[in-house]
Amino acid sequence: MNDRMLTASELVAAYATGELSPIEATQNALQAIEARDGDCNAYCLVDADRALEQAKASEIRWRDGNPIGWLDGVPSSIKDMFLTQGWPTVRGSKSIDPDQPWDVDSPVAARMREAGLVLLGKTTTPEIAWKGVTDSPLQGITRNPADPSKTAGGSSGGSAAAVAAGMGELSVGTDGGGSVRIPASFCGIVGLKPTHGRIPLYPASPFGPLSHAGPMARSVDDTALLLDVLSIPDHRDPAALAPPVGSFREAVRRDVRGLIAAYSPTLGYVDVDPEIAEIVAAAVRALSDAGLHIEQTDPGFADPKPAFDILWSSGAAKLLDSFPAGSEERTDPGLRKVWELGKTWSASDYLDATAERAALGILMGEFHTRYDVLITPTVPIAAFEAGHNVPPGSGLSEWPEWTPFTYPFNMTQQPAISVPAGHTSAGLPVGLQIVGPRHSDDLVLAVAKLLEEVRPWAPA
What is the dihedral of CA 382, 181, 287, 169, to 10 degrees? Predict the structure, then answer.
């Protein structure tokens, strides 16, 4: 095989012909971790021995002609927010004791094992995944493979950096306000937040209706394959959806030419960096040239950040209130402020925010009776200096202020995907976001696939 980073789909094709084995692929991923993770800090735990054991079992299955599925033997990682049997899940926090029994798999970890994926380890997260960049007092700063002086984004920045740097082909992150899509955009990979409940979660997230899990990969095909694995229902999540009617692996091939897309460059209220705006506009023109009917229009809602802040900070406070006494001193200072804010809301405040969330969902449901998908930039800026919650010198104070394209669609629970659209003159990746109506994960993936075909991504 050549030195180009292979996708998961290309790996399994090589397994099938014997050109490459799961052991070789796993060794390559471990070597990449050794070579690159000192700069990126994408992993908080790597278990090489266990990964190679899984790879050996996969190699036997491929040799005997009995692979478990389409991703058997693919080196992968999992964000340190998911319970993973045999490994601590400390969620980036000094207040969680790693020395305790870890004998339960979350639905995400269980499905990955059942499908034969090779789990290399766990990826970094800010404390309890609370913000749009990835750093914590426990695990330090996670940096962007495209430029280690820049942030990888967050809160699934460890997963995005791992995939972008070739330290495993696949990963799974969480997304409560953009946490899969932000780092996917900043690092130049594909990141999908599916319809709420499409991927079962256990234990239930304190962020409740905002919280999603999502696949992260270097291609749309791989994202669809991983979603097939993760979409199997689990009785531990009462909000989990029924099994998909068909496979996302096949749905991604759907012909979407002729469908109607709304293109909203600003949602009507976002200040977008001019270079980002032009990169995304050029990608939209390419989609139009390929046969997608595009109309420039806004959905027609005001910035829902005040309601999002209530829902987000309330969830954070509820979780942090369960931490041991003295945790305040060990907690990320920014998270402490969110904790204190969350304690100020009443039940009536929370219900008002929930009502606003529902109204936004209804508005978007009506919007999608006229437009099959909505296209926006993923983030209005490129990756900024690592180690900061907001871009230095921006005058901003909170992370949601610089990612206004992502959190509205956590509130509406719609599927939304970030796909690479190009890179800035400084070589930093830029993502385009495609949003569909609830339960249209297949459509969102198919439009993303069309963009991938007409605007092939190549790192700068």
Answer: 100
